[in-house]
From TrEMBL:
PANTHER family: NITRONATE MONOOXYGENASE-RELATED. It comes from the Bacteria. Its cofactor is FMN. It comes from Rhodococcus erythropolis (strain PR4 / NBRC 100887). It catalyses: 3 propionate 3-nitronate + 3 O2 + H2O = 3 3-oxopropanoate + 2 nitrate + nitrite + H2O2 + 3 H(+). Keywords: Detoxification, Dioxygenase, Flavoprotein, FMN, Monooxygenase, Oxidoreductase. This is Propionate 3-nitronate monooxygenase. GO terms for molecular function: dioxygenase activity; nitronate monooxygenase activity. Transmembrane segments: none annotated.
Length: 342
């Protein structure tokens, strides 16, 4: 391992990805670190106070860990398209007695500045960003506070921009990853370049440590990413069914459902490209979904929460990477040790 990945306190080259929306619990983060890897709290969709509470919980466990933040990279939605989409999907929300939106899109930055203030006032070992890059001033301040700064990229061009921006490490995310793509250009769905090829391309252009992410679900996958030039592997979907995961019961059940087919990339739930298990909502609305994040996320959120409450997997986001069939119901430490081939 490189000096910088050694700074991550990795004993095994496997990292638990930050999964916003509840999956990345403090227990999962601590389990990953205890297994010799590293866990990340997901700051996305949390209030600053909720994030602070989770940081305190993990810190009390005495383990190294990271925090992932959504960097502002808004894609304003066309208001007419937003209203048309609202009318279209209302029929599905009617199942739960929910009225979606008031015709005006909600655009916000997920408390970005407040979360940066928190991380500067109470530094953590590692801070990573996805969806975009923070300003040079933010990167400099975090590094001065003692945090390693990790930027998420999905292409060689983005990687070079991240290096120029001052990243200590890069998460190189392939299109096989579950959940949202970290692409800097969400108007375009990233090319389906295999993670080993993407790592090899970027490794030829920079000596910055690379963390491979996307579709890594077996020890063979991890080994291949390391051979291609990655310093460590980042895994998410394969941890969703673990005992420590905070994924909902219907999400876990869908991942275990042998009748489910391949995953697809869709904007139907959030207006931003994300890989998920195909379901009725995607089949019905993917072609109609406007581009626009976070407006579409906020629009569909009440319906998705109601679907979870009623154990209806057909109207909730079932984020999953291409290796989802390898997700198992067992302790996270067991999964991570197996991936590290221990």
């Amino acid at each position: 391992m490189s000096a910088l990945t050694t700074d991550l306190d990795l004993k095994v080259p496997v990292i638990a990805a930050p999964m916003a929306g509840g999956a990345s619990t403090p227990a999962l983060v601590a389990a990953a670190s205890r297994a010799g890897g590293l866990g990340f709290l997901a700051a996305g969709y949390k209030t600053p106070q909720a994030l602070s509470d989770q940081i305190d919980t993990v810190r009390a466990e005495g383990v190294s860990f990271g925090v992932n933040v959504f960097a502002p990279n808004p894609v304003p939605v066309d208001v007419d398209a937003y209203r048309a989409y609202t009318r279209s999907i209302q029929v599905d929300a009617d199942r739960y007695g929910i009225t979606l939106g008031d015709g005006e899109p909600v655009e916000d930055d997920d408390y970005f500045e407040d979360k940066i203030d928190l991380l500067l006032a109470s530094p953590v070992p590692v801070v990573s960003f996805t969806f975009g890059f923070p300003t040079p001033g933010v990167i400099k301040a975090l590094r001065a506070a003692g945090s390693l700064v990790v930027l998420t990229v999905t292409s060689e061009a983005e990687a070079l921009l991240a290096v120029d921006a001052g990243a200590d490490l890069l998460v190189v995310q392939s299109s096989a990853a579950g959940g949202h793509s970290g692409t800097l250009t969400p108007l375009q769905v990233p090319a389906e370049t295999p993670i080993t090829e993407l790592i090899a391309q970027i490794r030829h252009r920079t000596s910055v440590p690379l963390l491979a992410a996307g579709g890594l679900a077996t020890s063979a996958d991890v080994a291949a990413a390391l051979r291609a030039g990655a310093d460590a592997a980042v895994v998410g979907t394969v941890l969703l069914r673990t005992e420590e995961s905070g994924a909902s019961a219907p999400h876990k059940a869908a991942l275990a459902d042998t009748s489910r087919g391949n995953t697809v990339v869709t904007r139907a739930f959030t207006g931003r490209p994300a890989r998920a298990l195909r379901n009725e909502f995607i089949d019905r609305y993917d072609a109609r979904a406007p581009i626009g994040y976070p407006a579409i996320h906020h629009l569909t959120n009440p319906m998705r929460k109601a679907a979870v409450a009623q154990a209806d997997p057909e109207r909730m986001h079932l984020w999953a990477g291409t290796g989802y069939r390898h997700a198992t119901e067992e302790p996270a430490g067991v999964v991570l040790s197996r991936l590290a081939n221990l």
